[in-house]
Amino acid sequence: MSPRRRIVILAAGLAIALMGGVGAPRQAAMAYPTVDEGEDLEFGVYKVTNPDESYFDVATRMKVLAGTDDPQLVQLKEKVAMGLSCRALKAKPILDGEVTQPSFYDSPKEWKFASEPFLAFEQQMSQLAGAWVATGDPYFANCLVEILDRWAEADALNNISYSTRRPQVWYSVESMIFSAALAYSTVTGKIEIPAERRRRIDQWLKRIAKHHFSFKGSVPSCCNNHYYRRSLYMTIVGVIANDDEMFQTGLKSVVSALSDTDERGAFGFALRRGWRAIHYQNYSLLYVVMTMQVAYRQGYDLFKIRVNGQTIREAVLFLLRSLEYTYAVPGLPSGEQDLAFTNDPQYFAWMEIWLRHFDNPRIERFVRLHRPVFNRSAGGYLTLYFKKPESPRQQLRHQIANFEIRRKTAVEIGARYPVLEMWKYSQ
Question: Does domain 3-390 have CATH number 1.20.58.220?
């Protein structure tokens, strides 16, 4: 069976399962799919093909980085490993007991303080993976494995209780799981890991992922961007642990997102966020695109599947239109949109992946203003892993152009969203 034929079958099977049948109403696509529903689908060819495969070709990228003269990549390589001490990282606390967190929106200062152990774990996962890929030094890879093994031995995160009244911990654990799994995937198959240690880490990741995923949450968190985040960890943990059921469960989110996409390319759940609709359109893409990338490395090109006439490309184009012509795009909620997220590079990590699949000058110009892109949990150093190397002359030309854009926009516009205005000016 050809890869293209396989993709069509996957899209059709997932869409029917999520929509409750060919003639089901559109609202049914928003129903929360459980882990067990994967057993009812025909996924014979959609299995994990290589549990040692990461979300990018680690060995090839190491060779590229070793030989590149791209000034930005060279500088990033030198930076990521500086000051990393495995002893210091292993001394950080393990979350193996009861943990609570206040709401980010209700108490941002209290949330930041209570979140430090969660965020520190994600940071060290991404830092160690980045240092390993940048240098090829097994010191960093072995340190990453040792930290995960300590958490696995403590059965960390598996005893945390979740409540719909205080869901913040539930949100935080989502990103902890996929930050660990994405980082770990850069190491598996590349260094020697004792069989017992590999089994212990794999089983721990499966256990905490399935436990977390079994807690459905309330509407809309059950089905919106948080569903895409949970599906990302199900997909990558499914790969690492060679678990086809988990892998397939994670892939459902791709068709769920496309089923929630209207004829303009807008995600329905994002539009419901009102003044943050554009933010959540982009935020959803961050996780859906990464899930697609994990599947792509297993041999399944979900970037091309079409559901109800929509591909993920329509969602990307809607985002670009919304950023460029915010108040002229039909369908956006009335009132001012909060575009503060456009000043923060982490939200555009997905664009580095996108540019490895599609040529898009508008996205290239946008992400260039943000590079190097780092996302603490969703992949870490995306520019280091995905950016196509440039010659020093090319990079100098871009730097001069960016400097000129910054100078002119600062004088002529002085907007609250400087990166967005620079991007618009560059069109």
Answer: no
